[in-house]
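Form P-L/3: holo structure prediction, ligand manganese (II) ion.
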Amino acid sequence: MKVPFTFVHAADLHLDSPFKGLARVPETVRERLRESTFASFRNVLQAARNEKADFVVLAGDLYDTADRSLRAQLRLQRMFSELGEEGIGVFVVHGNHDPESGAQARLDWPANVHAFGSAAVEHKPAYRRDGRLAAYIYGISFPTPAVSDNLAARFVRKEGAPFHLALLHANVDGDPAHDNYAPCRLQELVSAGFDYWALGHVHDRRLLHEYPHVAYPGNIQGRSIRETGPKGASVVRVSETGEIRIDFRDTADVLWRETAVTIEGAEREQQLKERLLQAAEEARAEARGRPVVLRLRLEGRGSLHDALIRDSMAEEWLEELREWIGSPDDRDDWVWAESISVRTSSASDPARYADEDGFLGELVRRGLRASEHPEKSQALIREALDTLRKQPQIRAWADAMGEAERSELIRRAMETAAALLRDEESSG
Ligand SMILES: [Mn+2]
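OUTPUT (holo model):
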């Protein structure tokens, strides 16, 4: 028989993230974003109160940088001690963004907080609010930012508790989208004898296994247009029979969204204007009172394509769209149009030139062949970028491209070249 209890699992708070690269956004937007990681974490703790959680576990990257922001440390200290007044414990491990080696303010942390050290895996009892032992919590922090050791292998289950919770910042099964720190295998976590692995590091929410549960809650607040989708924390309920139920709480303070707008069937700019505006208003409605940073992705085949790919056209639409949807200074549920990306195709499929003689036909034939064959598209892109590869950023971008992206790039290059050649022919 187990003891029923409830806990909140969150990770990757990245408190006080600086939101660099937002130099050109209005002050209102920048300010709200700078506060968003704190606001989301307040929502996480409010969820812990509302759900009558017995304790909270935080799986690393509480802070954004190794030299922890003073503001973040002082605010955490206050928020944690408020939880302590309600009898809620807090268990913390540190990850690659906030390892032990970073500079830390010398602060007195409240007694309800336990931060695991980096020397060895420790275990601590976690109690329900009524004082009954609920679980042992095991954890270890990163000593330095780049940990290549398998920390999971050091976890050993002890006798004496009804439930065993392992708290770790780690990359399970070498997820290529994240740095391969504290690498380990799902299979070894599953067979290690714990009931729940509370993980951090991967910023998407993932449930890798059930019974035992192995879970990433994802980060609590999107920090760029690459971090769209719901962001928040898991409320985990363990019943007396050991059944585990996980409920997600979306705690984000500002939403990052990318939404597609098709140009198909739009013959006139007026229709495009209406569609852009509608997409922005839909994003606002779905956010239910929260502000949104929005990227609009134009796609589909249509007659507006040829105009859209001209220099600075997307910028002009973007500036106008910002005017129509209103200034972030005027309402709390603002929508900030971050960018418009053009992924459209011309109304007429260039494939129909493939049988023609001459340069246009040859270009289209080569483009189609390359976009259909991964090796050919790779070779073509390599050849095209040859001189640019000296630039480290371009090299990194080119090397990170997947098969589908390369094929898409070739197809777009072909469409653009074909459109320019057709223009030439009709004007000449
Ligand atoms: Mn992180």
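COMMENT: The chain has ten helices and 15 strands.
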